[in-house]
């Protein structure tokens, strides 16, 4: 037994090198440390959004070289509007995937809620806001029903939502009635949300400026709090680098939009949903519980997390976002019909979430995955339409990209396990 008892300090050789927490490398070495930390993360399988960003660059470079109109301001501006409907649905899918589950009903739910709004507004003359709220709440209640059977009854989510996919599609046909199609007036609130474009240049540049300042302020505030608490924090050089990259992307996007018509309101609404729900996931106890449940359900249960409620709430969010996405898709084609929510919408929404970086195995993802994944899928569809390729090629290429995303996710998880970080 060492002198001084069991709590006596262990002597350290004078020339010994003190151990350094690997999380502090970037804080100690500035930009060089940041690059070293980036290499360490990539080598250990923590790829983040890197694969999808590289894929997007390659897709744009290929289609841009094949046809210059692909990278035109008009096409990119139209693309930013066209991805909103699918992207909104993909945001909800991200929440379900974070639990390691799946929702196969989002397509039918989006079509049903769009039909509810159209019938109430056009056929029955209900106040537009009332019709809008009823349509969105219908999606919320559908998610509550799915979550109840999954979390309380114990029916697998795959089976519950597969049954919902069939049932809600049938209910949509019943709501639409014998005509099968209800055309929107074009002056309703949903159509205006989709079609409104702010032509003043300060709108797009103002949004870019607000995004940069918001990011910078949040980063500095987080650094101050961490420094006060005595925990690792990002240095000013790191924050400045990240802010500069964001500013370049934001102002380039604003410049491109202003070269055509301006800032689409639909894109603005989409970004607001992404930022708000990302805050919910990253900065609230509820979001931490969602990640905890997706990472280790038994550990989350033992930690006192209300597992059934979290599961039910996630499906409620997913169906609510499906309803909102369905409304934007209806506004895009100016009608709700028997084909609403059908076709490859379900696959595109799930693919957007997965391609964007959300893991199918749960516990890893972000609402920004919906934006990145929707951009990838939308860019592929837009580029192939410009080239005049058939739907057959579109399906095959999109399927190949989805498979590649899942393979990368699986390999990344294997690498993380090998590095002891999973």
From TrEMBL:
Keyword Transmembrane helix assigned to the entry: answer is yes
Localization, per the record, is:
Cell membrane
Q: How is this protein situated with respect to the membrane?
A: Multi-pass membrane protein
The principal localisation class reads membrane
Signal peptide boundaries: none
The keyword Transmembrane is annotated on this UniProt entry:
yes
Q: Which Pfam families match?
A: BPD_transp_2
The record lists the membrane-crossing segments as 47-67, 79-99, 129-150, 157-177, 197-218, 239-257, 263-281, 309-333, 345-361, 368-386, 392-412
One GO cellular component from the entry? plasma membrane
**Keywords (A to Z) from UniProt:** Cell inner membrane, Cell membrane, Membrane, Sugar transport, Transmembrane, Transmembrane helix, Transport
Domain of life from the UniProt record: Bacteria
Q: Name one GO molecular function term.
A: transmembrane transporter activity
Q: Which InterPro entries does the entry link to?
A: ABC_transp_permease
Any idea what job this protein has?
A: Part of the binding-protein-dependent transport system for D-xylose. Probably responsible for the translocation of the substrate across the membrane.
Could you tell me what this protein is called? Xylose transport system permease protein XylH
């Amino acid at each position: 037994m060492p002198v001084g008892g069991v709590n006596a300090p262990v002597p350290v050789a004078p020339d010994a090198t003190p151990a350094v927490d690997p999380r502090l490398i970037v804080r100690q070495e500035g930009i060089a440390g940041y690059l070293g930390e980036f290499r360490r993360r990539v080598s250990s399988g923590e790829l983040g959004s890197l694969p999808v960003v590289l894929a997007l660059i390659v897709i744009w470079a290929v289609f841009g070289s094949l046809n210059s109109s692909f990278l035109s301001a008009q096409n990119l501006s139209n693309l930013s509007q066209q991805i909103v409907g699918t992207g909104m649905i993909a945001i909800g899918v991200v929440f379900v995937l974070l639990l390691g589950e799946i929702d196969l009903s989002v397509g039918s739910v989006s079509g049903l809620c769009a039909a509810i709004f159209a019938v109430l507004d056009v056929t029955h003359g209900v106040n537009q806001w009332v019709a809008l709220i009823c349509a969105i709440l219908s999606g919320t209640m559908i998610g509550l029903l799915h979550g109840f059977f999954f979390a309380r009854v114990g029916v697998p989510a795959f089976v519950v939502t597969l049954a919902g996919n069939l049932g809600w599609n049938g209910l949509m046909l019943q709501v639409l009635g014998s005509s099968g199609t209800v055309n929107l007036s074009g002056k309703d609130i949903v159509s205006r949300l989709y079609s409104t474009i702010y032509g003043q240049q300060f709108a797009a540049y103002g949004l870019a400026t607000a995004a940069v300042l918001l990011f910078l302020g949040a980063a500095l505030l987080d650094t101050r709090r961490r420094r006060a608490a005595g925990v690792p924090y990002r240095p000013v050089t790191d924050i400045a680098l990240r802010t500069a990259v964001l500013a370049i992307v934001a102002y380039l996007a604003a410049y491109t939009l202003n070269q055509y018509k301006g800032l689409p309101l639909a894109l603005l609404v989409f970004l607001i949903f992404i930022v708000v729900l990302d805050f919910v996931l990253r900065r609230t106890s509820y979001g931490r519980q969602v990640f905890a449940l997706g990472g280790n359900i038994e550990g989350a249960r033992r930690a006192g997390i209300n597992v059934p409620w979290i599961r039910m709430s996630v499906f409620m969010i997913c169906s609510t976002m499906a309803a909102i996405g369905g409304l934007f898709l209806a506004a895009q084609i100016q009608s709700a019909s028997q084909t609403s929510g059908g076709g490859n919408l379900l696959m595109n929404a799930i693919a957007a979430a997965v391609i964007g970086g959300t893991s199918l195995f749960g516990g890893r993802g972000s609402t920004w995955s919906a934006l990145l994944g929707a951009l990838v899928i939308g860019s592929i569809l837009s580029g192939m339409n410009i080239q005049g390729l058939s739907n057959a090629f579109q399906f095959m290429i999109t399927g190949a990209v989805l498979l590649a995303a899942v393979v990368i996710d699986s390999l990344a998880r294997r690498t993380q396990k090998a590095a002891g970080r999973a």
